[in-house]
């Protein structure tokens, strides 16, 4: 079951299903995957419709996304257990996209995002996306949870707005408050009942499909008691029984230009979400995913989803974790989950009309609560000022500004924190706590420790310059310097020039081959600089 070796270069785009089949796949594995796939499908069915409705599109598009996108993610992906489909993290982006360029524009943006994800995988960018700092992911996830919950307030309370619901959270809250007179107590009762059933089953029957059971009970109660709340049927009509025939979106230049900014946002968010989900699956199972193969699969899934009228597909953490816990043996369970959802759609589509929107709002309220990593959030707030700053900036930007902006600025701040910490890790000291005199008493030997990059060079360069005012021979021991970048190498170039103007010499001790190569490329080979293997060679010289 575990992938314990690093994939070879030629195999990094190989779908995991081929790996599973090569290892041997029998009837027992198929039975386990069928059970896991059915379990995930039962979870995905109400969730797909709820996310689609919250995103501003019809519930059927959520099912198309799960069926087409979910199948392709598992069939082509680089993770054994990844489950693809519509994700709560996309709700705010998708709804904003629909408001800006319409449903057809959303479908085109999804198609273009698929192309960009394939390109990102082909360029092997998946390895780098995984380096997003932990405070950024926690702040981003918590911000998404707040946005998801805010998007469900209207249906939770059965409010009727005078116009479209605003996307910005402050304007949204103002609009909802203005509609408080339209509060429907029955809607809140239905939503609260759904939440209570889900939480109760989670506590007393953890293996039961709580979301589906809660939605079925709420739908039956509303239909039998004739409760006056809005349902899928009253708002969207009857659902189709099968996905539509595939059709290319409008690929005219004006349409592409309008959709491209949204496609870029979908690509960034989708890549992060799917690879985080794959990492979670790895941690639960002991497997190892192929990040670039996963990006390519996500791209193909988004293109396929768009062809059938669906929207953004990504790896879904909750459904992926459910898949692992249900005993999945590999990607077949994800493919079967998509086929099970298709079967449910073909058989039970007319019954979906009875589902109350308040019930689906209750489901998404639970999703939002579970998404918010509350303990991790509080832990990071207490851990250090730097981590707390990155966390809060990311969280506040996601909630009040923009998802992509929150990720990018949070990542940049996380990078600055890392640079500051690495700079502090770099040390400069007199060798053996004292200068080593030359024959005329005019030599200083300095030992550096840690990576010498632009952050360290900026902090420590002034120290070296002050020391360089004294000796004729300036000796720098780089034995404990594992790497040096161009900024760090340039600081030595400036030091060597300064020594040359004073008729002095810079002596470099113990530079590793990559470090020496970087110094020579910067121009030190053209100056009176001596490279020696160790301090013993210095004394012999």
UniProtKB/TrEMBL annotation:
It comes from Paragemmobacter kunshanensis. This is SulP family inorganic anion transporter. Pfam families: STAS, Sulfate_transp. Signal peptide: none annotated. It comes from the Bacteria. It is a multi-pass membrane protein. Keywords: Membrane, Transmembrane, Transmembrane helix. The chain crosses the membrane at residues 34-55, 62-83, 89-119, 131-153, 177-198, 210-229, 256-281, 339-369, 389-419. GO terms for cellular component: membrane. Residues 444-541 form the STAS domain. One of its GO terms (biological process) is transmembrane transport. It is found in: Membrane. SUPFAM superfamilies: SpoIIaa-like (SSF52091).
